[in-house]
Amino acid sequence: MNLQSLATKIIETMGGIIEFTEYALAQVLLPEKYRARFQGRAELLLAFDYEVAEENPTAEFVTFGSDVLETLLDIAMVTATSDVRYAIVDRIEVTSPEERIQRLLGQTERHDINVLSKRVVMGIWAAFTFRAQFISSESFEEERKVWVNMQTGKPDPVMANCLIFFERQPLHEYPYAATGSFSDAYTAAAAEMAAISAGIAESAVSPVKIIRETERLQSYYEDLLEENDRRLTRKGLTSERQEDINNKRLALQQEMERQINEIKANMIPSYNIHLAHGITTHIPVIELTCKITTRNSSEQYTYHYECLTKQLYRLTC
Fold this sequence. Notes:
Blueprint: H1 3-14, E1 17-22, E2 25-29, E3 43-47, H2 50-55, E4 60-61, H3 67-79, E5 81-87, H4 97-105, E6 112-135, E7 140-149, E8 154-155, H5 157-160, E9 166-167, H6 182-203, H7 207-230, H8 239-267, E10 270-293, E11 298-306, E12 311-314
Helix pairs in contact: 1-3, 7-8
């Protein structure tokens, strides 16, 4: 990771806002709680290139050993938090695995399920806590935790609603299940948080207000369209003139749609997402290797039965 990417990540994780106005030159708005670390300043101008710094004398050059980079790294070391937990699970067992798999597969086709092997492994779930800042006439913040199943690489909403008791040290000596990378897990969590934030932003605006504004705009354009259509009723119009009037109708409709979309975009708050901290939780999982036969095929699959929330899921081959 280069210095520009590193500094950007730290500033965003702090809850600050960084905006690049040109190549290697960024304006930064600092959260109030960190301003004392920067001589009480609320804003910074940072340059990540020597020539850019020369062209902008008021900018601070971010390089190894610079005061601004050392301060950012110091803040990152103090504020970045992570934790590792080992879930306490009462019963590490699965009853009627064939029936559970059948329910997961559904009843659309008959399956012959044969469990070939069963073992206990340790699975890992990563929980990313994000803080979203919503910017509008009345700005606000929301914090959400997104869990990702490291075995599948997908968000796990069931785990997000589970009360987990844990220890700081391993409770069991089980081999670990194959997992994806934390980078991929973070990408999946960030995409999920973006979808959550988009929903929060949309719900922050009264639908009645949006409808009222769009109806007002539609009424205005309907009058223009009616006036435009009346021109087609005139006698003696050439084919070229008729085509011009029809093209004007299409242009008016497109402009109306553009302005309606613009109204919605302006009324719905924009948002910035920052990672606050992350937690990994280790949970015993029963790994089932199964042969599943149907009328047309016979395949071998691996399923995991997570013993805390009793979820069953199939691993991607």
